[in-house]
């Protein structure tokens, strides 16, 4: 049997987090959605179907070849999994069927012989035809539909991920560091260092400090939390429900927030209930609201309209390569696109800042893409990473598809 | 609009944004070196020119506009194409 992870048509509800990556690369818990599939279907061949614009960049980054290849759908039994699936445990359907959750296909279990009877020339046609021949059943699985779903499920997902690794101390734990709660809920990976006067609190859930991560003095980490490989906590509070991808620097206070990786929030300031993508730099004292003063539910800009999250705690969703200046104040439920520059002016920023826009003195401004790419190259080279031609191609595509919303924002501020 | 008026309006925009007296602004004035524009003010200048003249300036080409004279030339060209600039 082969596993096939596919993006469905609802990927754009997860913008700006998925402009530069397929949905299954989003992080929830200590791992990405994809890594959870991989863990549950160990040693099985996995192929991918995603937006065509992502393919070159994805292949280059992951050295993957089984992407958008129709041949991967033939000659084997298949278990197709929606890329939005937050997998808790292995799905093993006994018979050929389609699992449906909230009117979306969560999975399809299909035999080679049935596939041979299906005519298709592209993936969407394959899905459409399979939907007509296999029985469907409602299933109780989790699909990530909006960005805040990642946040709301993060704590539980960290606890689930912890079960597969268990408590272990392989790195250096200073005798002057304090562990509050059950030590068996603590994982400290190889070459990780916990300095004196750091506090790791496992009372409410596990704390995972991955390989080569460093926790500086006067840092408090509350579980469930995950500190990714080579990340640093440079003092401050990492409160419950936080996940940091690799090479992320955190100071100040964060709560129920996911940093995808390679991001900086080095200084004071609060970030809560947020998802921050790669290569984001949050200037000192950047702070977001994640709760309205009237405790009403937070609406978030999704695809040109405001969607009620039905949650009272929602922070910010910030796309890759975006930077905020010192003292930036972000409103509850703010969405900031890819490669933006947000300059704080003492006022609360708007709830939506389109990709590649600069926000300065309460105005939206446009800036040269060429110069922004140069800045990104420089930022990445500092961490020994390369902005590849494939990445540039994808960024140019995103620049193009976000042109109209950027133009509207600039024109509005010219009025 | 005549070229004289264009030049005067550009100087007025520059003066207002960069807080430099109009009489100190010449066509040869470099926005950064002579008029003290910060890097982010150059973006604000583009927005201010767009607002003043109701035009759209390409962000890549705008990078080459480093003096007041270049701005007159660049904006003049756009206005001419739109039939809004006389000889």
Secondary-structure blueprint:
The complex is a heterodimer of chains A (415) and B (87).
Chain A (H helix, E strand, L loop, with lengths): L1 E5 L20 E2 L2 E2 H8 L5 E4 L5 H8 L15 E5 L2 E2 L10 E5 L2 E7 L1 H4 L7 H11 L2 E3 L3 E2 L3 H6 L1 H12 L2 E2 L2 E2 L4 E3 L5 E3 L4 E2 L4 E3 L5 E3 L4 E2 L3 E4 L2 E3 L4 E7 L3 E3 L4 E7 L2 E2 L4 E2 L4 E3 L2 E2 L4 E2 L4 E2 L10 E4 L2 E4 L7 E3 L4 E2 L4 E2 L3 E3 L4 E2 L9 E2 L3 E4 L2 E4 L2 H13 L7 H13 L1 H12 L1
Parallel strand pairs in A: 1-4, 1-5, 7-9, 11-14, 12-15, 13-16, 14-17, 15-18, 16-19, 17-20, 18-21, 19-21, 20-22, 21-23, 22-24, 23-25, 23-26, 24-27, 27-32, 28-33, 29-34, 32-35, 33-36, 35-37, 36-38
Antiparallel strand pairs in A: 2-3, 5-8, 6-10, 7-8, 30-31, 38-39
Chain B lengths: L2 H16 L20 H15 L5 H4 L5 H14 L6
Helix pairs in contact in B: 1-2, 1-4
Structure summarized in a few sentences:
The complex is a heterodimer of chains A (415) and B (87). Chain A is of the alpha/beta class. Helix content of chain A is 21%, strand content 30%.
User: What are the secondary-structure elements of chain B, in order, as H or E?
Assistant: HHHH
Radius of gyration of chain A: 22 Å
**What portion of residues of chain B belong to β-strands?**
under 5%
N-to-C CA distance of chain A? 59 Å
Number of strands of chain A: 39
Mean pLDDT of chain B: 92
Shape descriptor of chain A reads: globular
Quaternary status: heterodimer
Neighbour order of strands in the largest sheet of chain A: 11-14-17-20-22-24-27-32-35-37
Radius of gyration of chain B: 12 Å
What would you say the CATH architecture of the largest domain in chain A is?
A: 3 Solenoid
Contiguous helical run count of chain A: 9
Principal-axes shape call of chain B = globular
* Domain tally of chain A: 2
Sequence stretches where pLDDT stays below 50 over 5 or more residues of chain A: none
- In CATH, the topology of chain B is named Non-ribosomal Peptide Synthetase Peptidyl Carrier Protein, Chain A
Question: Which structural class matches the secondary elements of chain A?
Answer: alpha/beta
């Amino acid at each position: 049997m082969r596993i096939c992870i596919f993006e469905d048509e609802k990927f754009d509800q997860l913008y700006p987090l998925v402009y530069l990556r397929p949905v299954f690369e989003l992080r929830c818990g200590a791992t990405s959605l994809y890594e959870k599939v991989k863990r549950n279907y160990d040693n099985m061949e996995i192929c991918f179907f995603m937006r065509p614009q992502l393919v070159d960049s994805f292949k280059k980054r992951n050295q993957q070849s089984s992407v958008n290849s129709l041949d991967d759908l033939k000659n084997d039994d298949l278990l197709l999994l929606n890329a939005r699936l937050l997998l808790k445990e292995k799905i093993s359907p006994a018979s050929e069927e389609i699992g449906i959750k909230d009117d979306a296909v969560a999975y399809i279990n299909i035999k080679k012989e049935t596939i041979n009877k299906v005519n298709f020339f592209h993936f969407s046609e394959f899905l459409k035809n399979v939907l007509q021949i296999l029985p469907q059943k409602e299933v109780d699985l989790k699909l990530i539909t909006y960005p805040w779903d990642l946040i709301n499920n993060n704590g539980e997902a960290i606890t689930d991920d912890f079960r597969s690794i268990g408590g272990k101390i392989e790195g250096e734990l200073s005798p002057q560091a304090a562990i509050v709660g059950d030590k068996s809920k603590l994982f400290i990976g190889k070459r990780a260092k916990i300095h004196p006067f750091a506090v790791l609190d496992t009372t409410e859930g596990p704390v995972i400090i991955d390989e080569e991560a460093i926790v500086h003095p006067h840092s408090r980490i509350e579980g469930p939390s995950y500190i990714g490989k080579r990340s640093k906590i440079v003092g401050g509070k990492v409160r419950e429900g936080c996940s940091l991808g690799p090479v992320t620097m955190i100071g100040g206070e964060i709560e129920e927030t996911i940093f995808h990786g390679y991001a900086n929030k080095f200084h004071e300031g609060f970030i809560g209930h947020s998802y921050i993508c790669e290569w984001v730099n949050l200037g000192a004292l950047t702070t977001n609201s994640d709760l309205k003063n009237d405790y009403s539910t937070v609406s978030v800009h999704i695809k040109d309209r405001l969607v009620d999250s039905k949650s009272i705690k929602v922070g910010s969703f910030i796309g890759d390569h975006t930077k905020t200046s010192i003292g930036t104040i972000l409103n509850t439920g703010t969405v900031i696109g890819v490669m933006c520059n947000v300059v704080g002016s003492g006022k609360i920023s708007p709830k939506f800042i389109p990709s590649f826009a600069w926000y300065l003195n309460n105005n939206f401004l446009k800036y040269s893409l060429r110069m922004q790419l140069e800045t990104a190259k420089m930022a990445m080279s500092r961490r020994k990473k390369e902005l590849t031609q494939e990445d540039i191609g994808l960024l140019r595509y995103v620049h193009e598809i976000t042109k109209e919303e950027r133009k509207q924002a600039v024109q509005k501020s010219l009025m | 609009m005549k070229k004289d008026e264009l030049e005067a309006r550009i100087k007025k925009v520059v003066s207002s944004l960069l807080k430099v007296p109009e009489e100190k602004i010449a066509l040869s004035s470099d926005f950064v070196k002579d008029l003290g524009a910060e890097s982010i003010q150059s973006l604000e200048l583009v927005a201010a020119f767009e607002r003043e003249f109701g035009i759209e300036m390409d962000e890549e080409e705008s990078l080459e506009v480093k003096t007041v004279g270049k701005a007159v030339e660049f904006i003049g060209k756009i206005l001419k194409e739109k039939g809004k600039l006389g000889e």
